[in-house]
Write a structure and sequence with these properties.
The protein is mainly α. Helices cover 53% and strands 3% of the residues. The protein is globular. The two termini are 22 Å apart. The C terminus is likely disordered.
């Protein structure tokens, strides 16, 4: 599956005024944008298979993808699971409540899907995107603090950012030490600082890349997550 290049700039959501994609699941606009990450891929997948959305053919295609997640891109796998009904809880497969056996099993197997990093991003960026998307789309099984961090970092990841170990540790420490009433604004300020630093670094990299002596951008990397890899 061909990945689009990273966004040129981060942009604000017209509804919540944070970075687009980062307001979900509370912000309906951001929630739809996040869902669109998998729905757009599924629509393209249906076109490849000459299949119309809705009906038995689409369901059969979704069942095929769910049965062999290691052969498909993670966005295709997530979209396929959305179209299947959990036999235990009756909701969307892999998105049910905590402790639902079938949903937990499907959620674990989804991490066997293919993750393909886009050109110009650090290896592991696509895995970070799919983990954060999974948390935002399945918030009921995750702590509020983790949902907060995952959703706020998602726009940066989509723009090509990947936090260093030190940056991730600083944000984690901030979450643990901030009083509940101040946690959200504290993390928001920390993410804004990361976004500003990332934007400066990207501008500098583009300026360097415009030089005729600059090396070529590394090719995209392709890898799979280990089955059962933590969210």
């Amino acid at each position: 599956m061909v990945r689009q290049e990273t966004d040129v700039t981060l942009r604000r959501c017209t509804e919540c005024h944070g970075y687009a994609y980062g307001g979900g699941p509370a912000c309906a606009v951001c929630r739809d944008l996040v869902d669109g990450l998998v729905e757009g891929a599924w629509a393209a997948f249906l076109r490849q298979w000459d299949t119309v959305a809705g009906g038995d053919q689409e369901r059969a295609l979704a069942e095929m993808v769910a049965a062999e997640p290691d052969r498909h891109d993670w966005r295709i796998v997530d979209a396929a699971l959305d179209r299947l009904v959990c036999p235990d809880c009756g909701g969307r497969l892999a998105r049910g409540p905590v402790g639902c056996p079938a949903c937990d099993l499907a959620h674990g197997f989804r991490y066997a899907a293919i993750e393909t990093d886009r050109r110009g991003v650090r290896p592991g960026n696509e895995h970070a995107i799919r983990v954060n998307v999974s948390v935002v789309r399945r918030p009921q099984v995750t702590s509020e603090s983790e949902v907060l961090v995952r959703r706020l970092l998602l726009p940066l990841l989509l723009a090509g950012f990947l936090p260093t170990t030190q940056e991730a540790q600083r944000v984690s420490a901030l979450v643990k030490t901030s009083p509940p009433g101040r946690r959200a604004p504290s993390v928001e300020r920390a993410v804004e600082a990361l976004a500003e630093g990332f934007s400066r670094t990207r501008r500098a990299a583009r300026a360097a890349a415009s030089s005729p002596t600059s090396p070529d951008t590394p090719a995209a990397t392709r890898h799979r997550s280990a089955r059962g890899r933590p969210r």
